[in-house]
Amino acid sequence: MSVGTRSRGMMERVLDVVHPPRPVYAHCDIPCGIYDPHEAQIAALTVLRMDQLIGELPAPAMDTKPEDRAAYVSKLARYIVVKEAHSERVKSEVRVIWGDYFTPDHAKQFPQVHELVFKIMKQASKARQGTALADAQELLKEVQEFAEIFWQTKGAKTRRIPSMQKPGGELVVPA
Fold this sequence. Notes:
Radius of gyration: 23 Å
Largest sheet: 2 strands, antiparallel
């Protein structure tokens, strides 16, 4: 590092102390304006499907061969890993829309949105921790409610269509 580069760096630090930089605020990291709760709904359906698969997985008997027991453990581990990732995906997708898209005016129009986001965060954690189908179904229900509110903020009516996925369920889409 040259003497000039070091001097410039020291001068910048002194200027920051004398005249601290002002914080800069932005709507989001990249204000692209593209938001859609579809990914959160798909992730919630995936959590539900993993719970279904875990419930359908026959537990090995005591006298099961080691390679069959290993296959069982491997399948179970994969289902759990996918469920964990998609539970977190629900939280991430909802958090981004809530934090980057929703405005104070939206919150006035839909005062329940903050509580709903809180419930989704907690429900995603609960669905992640266990394998109860009811927990995954409740997560999907809450994410669908969030999707309905989201589309209403854009002035769109919504409708529910069959997901056409293995776990069943519906997707909330703009009409």
